[in-house]
Amino acid sequence: MKEMQAKTDTRHYGQFGGQYIPETLMAELQRVADAYDKYRNDPDFVKELDDLLNNYANRPSLLYYAKQMTEDLGGAKIYLKREDLNHTGAHKINNVIGQALLAKRMGKTRLIAETGAGQHGVATATIAALFKMDCEIFMGKVDTERQKLNVYRMELLGAKVHPVTTGSMVLKDAVNAALQEWTSRIDDTFYVMGSAVGPYPFPKMVHDFQSVISKESKQQILEAEGKLPDMVVACVGGGSNAIGSFAEYINDPDVKLIGCEAAGKGVNTDQTAATIERGSVGIFHGMKSLFLQNNDGQIDKVYSISAGLDYPGVGPEHAQLAELKRAQYVGVTDEEAVQAFEYIAKTEGIVAAIESCHAVAYVEKIAPKMSKDQVIICTLSGRGDKDVASIAKYRGVDIDE
Ligand SMILES: *Cc1c(COP(=O)(O)O)cnc(C)c1O
């Protein structure tokens, strides 16, 4: 982004966040922020949002007591927050419904979005179909080749998919292309941001729309156990399912919050996506946050077996929670995540997304060290059907996709 502008006010999370964007987008972001302030407590908006979450997306999601895992690991009681059971198979729909509803209220008729593996693109195309809106998805060319099935799925839902050929042709380049497209056409277009990242008000909107996860889990755990959990664990890419899982517990200091980053081949290798552990402060994609970058501020190539965690930055609120030590962030390797993918399938009969299995792997490590009267909630951010072929390949089994 060439013309940079920073604002210092409530748009920040400590030193992180802000709006580092071209001048032309500044006024539009303000309109989005104003519209969000107007509608977020508007009874009709809230009613329509709740109705769609409950009757279209299949909420509330279950908080499932994982009895076999608990007995097998022999420590803390483990509950799984089942975002994998949502329509379209992950937590992303919670956020997309909220942002698309806001777009409609603002009189927009066209949704654009970036996507990496295609999960956010599919969720956005789904809601665009439901709302009869135009939809265009920006996806790195490399990713369109790796994720052909999701490209076709988006097209089936009526979206147009643009392969992005700039940079390394992956997710970060798709975000740049989508921001650029938005800049050139703001009158009828709303940019549906896929994670708790980007310039204000996106991190706040995504936080709020995903906090339905912890609003539900808090009520559910109080009903099941009569007390708050000792620990909440979630995987972190940009950080949307994690911030949604943490939100209602941030002011409960006795609840430990653990974010699991993708360490790839290892936190100390150059094939990693462990942004918080390994990154440094920088400005990219409209926000100040932590990024994997070289000494010149060039964004590094990142790597993880999980396409959904393969992002070189993290949302600004997580950067702040890490700095304040309110949440702790740990790296989980490909190998540990694959092992957890197999473990939860065999012990609980759940094929969970490889992203989510980064959180499951940490639970496997920590639960045996905790006592039997302690409680962990682990978010399963999505279902793992999409990963079966690539995990088979990782294990040396070649199956036709
Ligand atoms: C996209 C995705 C993630 C990572 O995104 P966050 O914004 O960090 O939640 C994690 N799990 C699944 C299943 C995803 O689709």
From TrEMBL:
EC number(s) given by UniProt: 4.2.1.20
Pathway entry: Amino-acid biosynthesis; L-tryptophan biosynthesis; L-tryptophan from chorismate: step 5/5
PTM sites of type N6-(pyridoxal phosphate)lysine: 92
PROSITE patterns named in the record: TRP_SYNTHASE_BETA
Necessary cofactors: pyridoxal 5'-phosphate
CDD domains, alphabetized: Trp-synth_B (cd06446)
Cited function: The beta subunit is responsible for the synthesis of L-tryptophan from indole and L-serine.
Oligomer status and interactors: Tetramer of two alpha and two beta chains.
Protein name as it appears in the record: Tryptophan synthase beta chain
Organism classification: Bacteria, Bacillati, Bacillota, Bacilli, Lactobacillales
Gene designation: trpB
